[in-house]
Fold:
Amino acid sequence: MDLQTYRIIHLFGLSLVLMALGGLVVHALNGGTKSNNAFRKGAIISHGVGLLLVLVAGFGMLHKTQHDVGWMVGKMVLWLVLGGAVALVYKSKVMAKAIFLTVPLVVLIGAVMALYPFPVTPPVQ
Structure:
């Protein structure tokens, strides 16, 4: 596949993750629980499929662009944060609010890292 196809898959996966998290967070903030969320299973599946697409397309882009592999560690940390957030949504309303506020920042950090990839090893002179 070419780089643009990987980017489209990556962004589609990210949209699935964000929509699922957003839906779960809004439901939790409105007083909903795991048991009374009619679409919880669908949201969890969308979240998981989105994470898988982000991961696979991310590695595809890494292969195509030949970035330093060490740069990938930071992106994997962000991926883990987005993946783990779904488990914390129903813990408390405070946690749901924190997820609502921090997830856009996580995505912003990921976008900045993608646009301005930093070298992990100093350039050889």
